């Protein structure tokens, strides 16, 4: 493609609203443009990268036995009401009414649509297992769209769904998808981890997120420094043996703690370490109040709390509710003398000796508090966030943290949606049974941003070979020079004839502008036709390493093919 015949509007300045490198560079290099907040057009270069990522996805999906289809973006509300998600999904679901006042949603995800389709079309075990996928635009009304393609209101996603007659069949498909996802992200050149995750609003159990390591990631990954263990911090189990002090139990005493509300403020006031404190929080778990305890230096993980109660919703009680129920402001709450409320504690609390906690009187705390002697705990659970330096849950090494960008997620859904939507089949015994499902998603457009976050330098993007919009950037230094232009045109035609994708900068621009744009756009190999054109020589430059060398036009195709195979 000739530069003069396409649309590549590069920018010298960093856009004011672009906070991260991928957003800045994709806009500056002419790959995307914002149409509305969180909504982007993919310009010709951006569209080529998008199609290249989609190609990788399609190839690996086919290897995994998945078949491509396409479902509507416009979904009737009745399907969502059947599963209950019309009411529970939240404000991110974009809802609208047609001219007949019928309710619809723009597809944020497609569990309801695909399950209703399979319910109507598949009636026998002989058609199972079956895995279907699509690559389609999704819509979510993000409260705060940000970071360009990483958090938008409209984005391209690959979503796949598998249907089974046994858990063993689902496990097999899950493993195939796990492998396919690993292959996809490896082919995209990404440094990533597959981590144990929470299923969130989708539902189901046994899930993994595929996280691209990046300092701008919104998720924290906990991983072992000595093994393959990795988990989202929300899901990492804590496997710590807490040692209990042998000091004599002291008498409980109520003390004033004026203006000390946070655990650190109370610790400083009492001149006691935070690990002797008992943090007390009041939660509403499916509308029931629960008092949750952790050690003072730990943080309660509401995802673990949700799983401990197998609850649909978990949220902190309001200050008003806490005061009405326990008689004190948040910061002075505690478990002593609490009645008619379940008390659940993290395992670390059991090892606290002569600790301190709120007295359920504003500005007062108990000291020398001991669990079981001074208050009852209904049960102990793993409720806290794992911390750096904790032993790895698999028993190998210690935990480290890293930031990550979620680019893929695989779920074992079970029969959540099949049961609610009546997706049944006749088994081998001729009896009706409910299908078992899996769900597998990749943020295709989000993956592009993640690639740029890992593949850039101070001058621009440095695309990996499999996703680059073009392999070669051909530059005619002075198109007005007959020898330079003739050689450039000859090389351009030879590259196309040999199926080497090329962007030919034939613009009548200054060389400095062309070279700066070339670095910004980030194609793997630059070929410059300049002052040695009369000798048939061109300059080659590898974008990533900066290595430069001259090649004669008669050897150029062989050299490019070698580079594409070995180095780029």
Automatic annotation (TrEMBL):
Q: What top-level branch of life does the organism fall under?
A: Bacteria
Task: Assign the protein's first listed, main location to one coarse class.
Answer: cytoplasm
What does the record give as the reaction this protein catalyses? tRNA(Pro) + L-proline + ATP = L-prolyl-tRNA(Pro) + AMP + diphosphate
Example GO CC term: the record gives:
cytosol
Q: Where is the Aminoacyl-transfer RNA synthetases class-II family profile domain?
A: 33-464
Query: Where is this protein found?
Result: Cytoplasm
**InterPro entries according to UniProt:** aa-tRNA-synt_IIb (IPR002314), aa-tRNA-synth_II (IPR006195), aa-tRNA-synth_II/BPL/LPL (IPR045864), Anticodon-bd (IPR004154), Anticodon-bd_dom_sf (IPR036621), Pro-tRNA-ligase_IIa (IPR002316), Pro-tRNA-synth_IIa_bac-type (IPR004500), Pro-tRNA-Synthase_IIa_type1 (IPR023717)
Signal peptide region: none
Q: What are the recorded Gene Ontology BP terms? A: prolyl-tRNA aminoacylation
This protein's UniProt keywords = Aminoacyl-tRNA synthetase, ATP-binding, Cytoplasm, Ligase, Nucleotide-binding, Protein biosynthesis
The EC category is ligase
Under Enzyme Commission nomenclature, its number is 6.1.1.15
One example GO MF annotation: proline-tRNA ligase activity
**Comment text on domains:** Consists of three domains: the N-terminal catalytic domain, the editing domain and the C-terminal anticodon-binding domain.
Tell me how this protein assembles.
Homodimer.
Q: Which family does it belong to?
A: Belongs to the class-II aminoacyl-tRNA synthetase family. ProS type 1 subfamily.
Q: What the protein does?
A: Catalyzes the attachment of proline to tRNA(Pro) in a two-step reaction: proline is first activated by ATP to form Pro-AMP and then transferred to the acceptor end of tRNA(Pro). As ProRS can inadvertently accommodate and process non-cognate amino acids such as alanine and cysteine, to avoid such errors it has two additional distinct editing activities against alanine. One activity is designated as 'pretransfer' editing and involves the tRNA(Pro)-independent hydrolysis of activated Ala-AMP.
Q: What is this protein called?
A: Proline--tRNA ligase
């Amino acid at each position: 493609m000739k530069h003069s015949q396409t649309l590549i509007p590069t920018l010298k300045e960093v856009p004011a609203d672009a906070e991260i490198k991928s957003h800045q560079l994709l806009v500056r290099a002419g790959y995307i443009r914002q149409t509305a907040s969180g909504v982007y057009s993919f310009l010709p270069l951006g569209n080529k990268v998008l199609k290249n990522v989609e190609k990788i996805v399609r190839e690996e999906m086919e290897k995994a036995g998945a078949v491509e289809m396409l479902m509507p973006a416009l979904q009737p509300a009745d399907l969502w009401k059947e599963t209950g998600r019309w009411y529970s999904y939240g404000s991110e679901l974009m809802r609208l009414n047609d001219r007949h006042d019928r309710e619809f949603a723009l597809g944020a995800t497609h569990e309801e649509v695909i399950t209703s389709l399979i319910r109507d079309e598949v009636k026998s075990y002989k058609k199972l297992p079956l895995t279907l996928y699509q690559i389609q635009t999704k819509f979510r009304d993000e409260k705060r769209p940000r970071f360009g393609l990483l958090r938008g209101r409209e984005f391209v996603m690959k979503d796949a769904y598998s249907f089974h007659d046994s858990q063993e069949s689902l496990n097999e498909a899950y493993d195939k998808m796990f492998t396919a996802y690993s292959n996809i992200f490896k082919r995209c050149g990404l440094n990533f981890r597959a981590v144990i995750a929470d299923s969130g609003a989708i539902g189901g159990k046994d899930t993994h997120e595929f996280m691209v390591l990046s300092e701008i990631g919104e998720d924290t990954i906990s991983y072992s420094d000595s093994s393959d263990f990795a988990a989202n911090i929300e899901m990492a189990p804590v496997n710590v043996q807490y040692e209990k002090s042998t000091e004599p139990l002291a008498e409980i005493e109520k003390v004033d703690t004026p203006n000390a509300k946070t655990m650190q403020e109370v610790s400083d006031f009492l001149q006691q370490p935070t690990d002797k404190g008992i943090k007390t929080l009041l939660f509403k778990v499916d509308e029931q109040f629960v008092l949750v305890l952790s050690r003072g230096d730990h943080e309660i993980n509401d995802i673990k709390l949700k799983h401990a109660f197998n609850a649909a919703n978990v949220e902190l009680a309001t200050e008003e509710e806490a005061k009405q129920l326990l008689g004190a402001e948040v910061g002075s709450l505690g478990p002593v003398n609490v009645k008619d409320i379940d008390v659940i504690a993290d395992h670390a609390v059991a090892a606290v000796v002569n600790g301190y906690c709120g007295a359920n009187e504003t500005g007062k705390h108990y000291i020398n508090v001991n669990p079981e002697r001074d208050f009852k705990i209904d049960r102990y659970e793993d409720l806290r966030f794992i911390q750096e330096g904790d032993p790895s849950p698999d028993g190998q090494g210690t935990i480290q943290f890293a930031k990550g960008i979620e680019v893929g997620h695989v779920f074992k859904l079970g029969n959540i949606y099949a049961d609610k939507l009546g997706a049944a089949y006749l088994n081998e015994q001729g009896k009706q049974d409910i299908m078992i499902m899996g769900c597998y998603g990749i943020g295709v457009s989000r993956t592009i941003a993640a690639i740029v976050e890992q593949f850039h330098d101070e001058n621009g993007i440095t695309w990996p070979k499999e996703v680059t919009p073009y392999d070669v950037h051909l530059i005619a230094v002075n198109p007005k020079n007959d020898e330079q232009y003739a050689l450039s045109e000859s090389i351009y035609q030879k590259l196309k004839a040999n199926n080497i994708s090329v962007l030919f900068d034939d613009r009548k621009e200054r060389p400095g502008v062309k070279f700066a744009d070339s670095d910004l756009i980030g194609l793997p190999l630059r070929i410059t036709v300049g002052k040695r054109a009369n000798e048939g020589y061109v300059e080659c430059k590898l974008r990533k390493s900066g290595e430069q060398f001259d090649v004669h036009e008669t050897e150029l195709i062989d050299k490019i093919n070698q580079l594409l195979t070995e180095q780029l």
